[in-house]
Design brief:
Length: 195
């Protein structure tokens, strides 16, 4: 059963053009995003260790995100692209974090739902990158596989939220956050980065 929502705003072709114009920078940013995604999931394990129903799935997701980091790093290594030394602030993530409620319970819900939306946006963009890589079949297949994996993650986090919150509450807040994410995406400049 599909649990995540469709994104309210599609990524514009100008973003794909920016990525294709500087694929090494995109790969560096992508590696950084996978590393941060793994760290984020593991921080949820640490912060919400009493949420026993979702701990195993959080751990599995964190491991998968770290495997994605390893895979992107291997692509970069083969192409002679170094990891970045300094992690850049991500304007997309920074804007999304401002949407979080401050009280503990609603913040927990928001963190799960934003994770779902971020994964859905990543899946959409991996699909676009895969489609644009006509001259690089190996990388095209790599991003196709990531697209499939990330789209599954979008459902996982909504499922976790449904373990603790009523369906109407989950999907009502998911709709609000999804609409806000669309406005954020519309306001970002195009750059060779995942977000």
């Amino acid at each position: 059963m599909k649990l995540s929502l469709e994104l309210t705003v599609v990524t514009q072709s100008g973003w794909v053009d920016a990525v294709m114009a500087d694929l090494p920078s995109f790969l560096q940013d992508h590696a950084d995003c996978e590393r941060k995604a793994s760290a984020l999931v593991m921080s949820l394990v640490a912060k919400y260790s009493d949420r026993l129903e979702i701990i195993p799935e959080l751990i599995a997701t964190g491991v998968e995100e770290l495997e994605h980091f390893q895979q992107v790093y291997e692509v970069m290594r083969q192409r002679g692209i170094p990891l970045v030394k300094e992690i850049q602030k991500d304007p997309y993530i920074t804007a999304l974090m401002k949407l979080l409620h401050s009280d503990k319970e609603r913040r927990f819900l928001d963190r799960l739902l934003l994770a779902s939306i971020i994964e859905c946006r990543g899946a959409e963009r991996f699909r676009l990158v895969s489609g644009a890589l006509c001259d690089d079949k190996e990388l095209q297949e790599f991003y196709h596989d990531l697209w499939v994996s990330e789209s599954r993650h979008g459902h996982i986090f909504v499922g976790m939220a449904l373990e603790y919150f009523e369906k109407d509450c989950v999907f009502g807040r998911l709709t609000e956050l999804n609409e806000a994410e669309g406005r954020i995406v519309d306001g970002l400049e195009f750059r060779a980065a995942l977000h």
